[in-house]
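pls ignore typos typing on phone
zinc ion + seq
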Amino acid sequence: MPSFEPMLEVTLKNYPKKNAAHVSYGTAGFRMKDDSLDYIVYRVGILAALRSQDKTAVIGVMITASHNPISDNGVKIVDPYGEMLEAHWEKFANKIINCSDEELAGVIQSIINESNINSSQTPQVYVGMDTRPSSKRLSAACLAGVETMGGKVADFGFVTTPQLHYMVWSYNSKSTHQPTMEGYYRKISDSFKRFLKLCKHTQSISAPVTIDGANGIGALKAGELQTYLGDSLSLKVVFDGTAGVLNDQCGADYVKSKQTSPVGLDTLAGERYASVDGDADRVVYYYKSKDDVFHLLDGDKLAILMTSYLKRLLNTSKMSDALALGLVQTAYANGASTDYITQQLDVPVACTKTGVKHLHHAALDYDIGVYFEANGHGTIVFSKSANNLIAEAASRADASTEEGVAVLKLHALSEIINQVVGDALSDIVVIEAILADENMSMEDWDKQYTDLPNVLTTVKVEDRSVIQTTNAERTVTNPEGLQAAIDNLVAQVSRGRSFVRPSGTENIVRVYAEAGTKDEANKLATGVVSLVKEMCN
Ligand code: 16G
Ligand code: ZN
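k done
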């Protein structure tokens, strides 16, 4: 009998399989109503332990449903260097979750055999959770799964998703930045303070930035970050969970999709606002202009600010020949942002499918790759050689020259940013650093380019899998004729662009349309929605 079986027999009784429906590991791991998740999270704990033995490394498990309602929850595995779970293991995840209780031991053994896993090693798993009421219960289920396989757990309790990714990366890569909360905060705040000392003027950030914490973990952790930032930057946290409900009429997803400020937040002209989502891996900024109009600075705007600033730093530091800079977006990126960065700044842009892992992977093709989804998930990744080159140049930089200062700024920025995964808190500090150095107001930032009017909507269909796409989700290959019909509508408006894709997280089809005017964008979206209804049901 395999050594895990006696323990499995004991713990399995507490986590019997309830759900007969087939579930699959998507871009967000497993996500659903929290009361259906107990046996799933328990089994994910088992799988994470196996993955840890497979990689001889610490593996992470995060309990969160991000921007989704408080009644949902979810679970996601973090691979050794903070990446999303490898595709081949997503298949194992589906197998282990969808088998019956009676089949479970056999499935575990088959994974051990197929991956040649050395079962004598002790698995090590880092576990973290968001602030949902169900998270503690589910975290306990995960621990039971890991322990069933004889694994050791480091339970980080309440952390943001990117903080857990950081811990896993920091431990496995033996980073000089410690795999502790203090290590995380010091990395951001020390490099930010170092950066500010290199700037001529920092007036633009003398006033606080208001952070909408979505009534979740981001609020808690922004407060902790503040203690490390001291008076270098003031974060004023609102929607901190003391009164409101998680993600309810607040948070990055609400602000981005409704294009308005959180309900109850009194925005003042001239001030800076940022909203993070329920697990703080996304952020959007916004402000109110003097004429009382709300302006959103979404993931595209963040990406363009970071990319244009990096471009300038590379030129001044004379490192632009050695370090290739690029931007990665998805089809949702506003066409005006892509035009601006390719035509005005001459930076190459790649487009990938939706989902962080696709963007992250593509960003690694550059020495310095910026990637952002329009929804605000993104970061900057530096290749190993770029990190080394920059650190080396910084160690001999002459701070009395413009060139030397640029090198030092580049080095500090590369340490403020969480290179492992999109991280709202570290993104905010990077944006604040750039605004400070450029002495930029929100209006200045917003003026870099003007968004094309756009519409993002959804269509309910019987089976979203009838829609198949290619070309980074920009072209439909099935149902036949749908793409030609979309092209036909696009041709009828100025600067038109539209695409449809099946959601990876819900049983719906998403429709995006943009055009030269709001009316045209609406007309295009309405037309494409009708096409989807006609041709996909
Ligand atoms: C997941 C993805 C997010 C993507 C969203 C799209 C990760 C960690 N998260 O939340 O990047 O924007 O799915 O959802 O990859 P959709 O497929 O329903 O449009
Ligand atoms: Zn999130």
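DSSP finds 18 helices and 19 strands in the chain. The two ends are 51 Å apart (CA to CA). more later
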